[in-house]
Amino acid sequence: MKTAFQAFFEVWGRGKPNQQMHHSKPAAKTVTGAAEYMKIVAKSSWPEKNATNTFDVQPEFSAEHLIVAHGFKSESHTVLSGDGYMITMHRIMRDLDRRYERAVILHHGILGSSEDWLLLGERRALPYLLSDNGYDVWLLNARGNKYSKTHTGKSAERLEFWDFSWHEMGIYDLPAAFKYISEITNKAELNFIGHSMGATALLVLLSTAPEYNDVLRSGVLLAPLAFMYHVKGPMRLLANFYSTNGHNSLNFLGQTEFMSSGTFPEQIVKRYCKGDKRSCENPMLLLVNGGSQLLETKLMEDILTHTPGGTSAKTIIHFVQLAKTGFFQMFDYGAANNVRKYKNGTPEIYNLKKVTLPLALFSSPSDWLATVSDIQTILPLLPNVNVHHVVKADNFGHYDFVWSPDAPDLVFNFILPLLDKITDSKKDSFFE
């Protein structure tokens, strides 16, 4: 029997994909940062991009092992989501006895886990930089990945466990995590950093339950996935295939776990891999255009042994639906089932005007999934985007926001001063 990712790439290998369709989109406004933005960044002090890891990452190391090996204190916390999933969070601190007034939760991207944030090592990884600057750091693991595969009443061996997408991550997992962190930290100010799918989950929550805009202090969205009509690579091919062959055409992806770990067939790699063979054997890297040009050999070894983290097939299909339609919408079950689910033949559209949380967006022109065109679509729909930072680097791909050796200079160098300004100001005067 074919695995999900074998079927996925066999479809990719059938020939040249259909030409991409085009929607008529309104012109997007350009969002710029506040006047003090660059002044703050200029004053910040960050490690050199060539700083090396202080510990040799081992494939058998869990997130907790990595955190301790990199010189930090680690705790593992499990929180119960509103629909019964057991969500694991990893906490990072320098001092276990310190009472932190500022906290930040980091949500990984598509097919990822908390380990993704840690692979750059002590002097470069974003969670460690945040911890050293006084933040109580929490790394969330989405339902269905290697750390969050338990439910109070459903076995991960059964189909019903995997009946979720990033919609449920937003409406169930995030509220439970926010409440738990608030209780543990004695209501420390909570900020959110979401990469890729992590940003998607936050937008789902804030648009469907606007009261959570007041729970958080700020949101930083790295390569957010919402509008995806202009995606490239395998995701575009799947969207074209789905558009041409109908609603059930993606059944070959399966109905349970999409990618846990392993590689797909060597013959597919030989035929379609244009980069390093081993990186193409990792379906996660090939899917998102991992930007291997920017990755050191040792770092690539670490990435290959710690990814992918796993997710549901439905999660991937939901993203494919966004790429097909060009809208940021709930899951499409087909017209008849949509009527039962939504009282309408088409899925509901997420109302981004309800997302009033102060946001900073980061994007890259080389990103296959969060493309420039799609980022320009979302910007005018979000009422409180204070900064849109475009990474100035060639070949800076979707996951380079997390693990590129250049990420400290190109991305992290801008995040922490922004958070510092937010947490040191009143909510109605962010970025002024």
UniProtKB/TrEMBL annotation:
Do you know which Pfam families this protein is assigned to? Abhydrolase_1
Q: Name one GO biological process term.
A: lipid catabolic process
Q: Where is the active site?
A: 196 (nucleophile), 367 (charge relay system), 398 (charge relay system)
Q: Which domain of life is it from?
A: Eukaryota
Where does the record place the AB hydrolase-1 domain? 103-264
Q: Which InterPro entries does its entry note?
A: AB_hydrolase_1, AB_hydrolase_fold, Lipase_euk
Q: Name one GO molecular function term.
A: hydrolase activity, acting on ester bonds
Q: Which UniProt keywords apply?
A: Glycoprotein, Hydrolase, Lipid degradation, Lipid metabolism, Signal
Q: Which family does it belong to?
A: Belongs to the AB hydrolase superfamily. Lipase family.
**What is this protein's name?**
Lipase
